[in-house]
Specification:
Radius of gyration: 19 Å
Number of helices: 2
Shape: elongated
Number of strands: 4
Number of domains: 1
Low-confidence stretches: none
Length: 105
């Protein structure tokens, strides 16, 4: 029983993700391959691969970041840099929350 002019309850509008490298809309889910991939997923990331340029990305909400390719020699350094940046942001947010809860209490 639906009312005329109303939308079905089961329809959910999900914003379409575009590849940060080539801007293609043909982006699909990717498998977790490494321990770093599993850590990104545990932190709330979503792994995707572009069908056109074959690049892998990690998405946090609506922000996508390119992941290093497996064959590149600098891949580990890029992964380490991304992990360090994520850890630094996490620690900063944790510090801000603990700082302002001390002031409020």
């Amino acid at each position: 029983m639906t009312h005329s002019g109303s939308r079905a309850v089961t329809e959910i509008e999900v914003p379409q993700k575009h590849c940060p490298k080539c801007r293609s809309a043909r982006v699909h889910r990717s498998h977790r391959k490494t321990t770093f991939d599993k850590m990104l997923c545990a932190a709330g990331g979503e792994l995707r691969r572009c069908h056109d340029c074959r690049s892998r990305q990690v998405w946090f909400a609506s922000m996508g970041f390119l992941l290093p390719n497996e064959g590149l020699p600098g891949g580990f350094a890029s992964a380490l840099l991304l992990g360090s940046a994520f850890a630094l942001c996490f620690l900063f947010i944790w510090w801000m929350i603990s700082r302002f809860t001390e002031l409020a209490g």
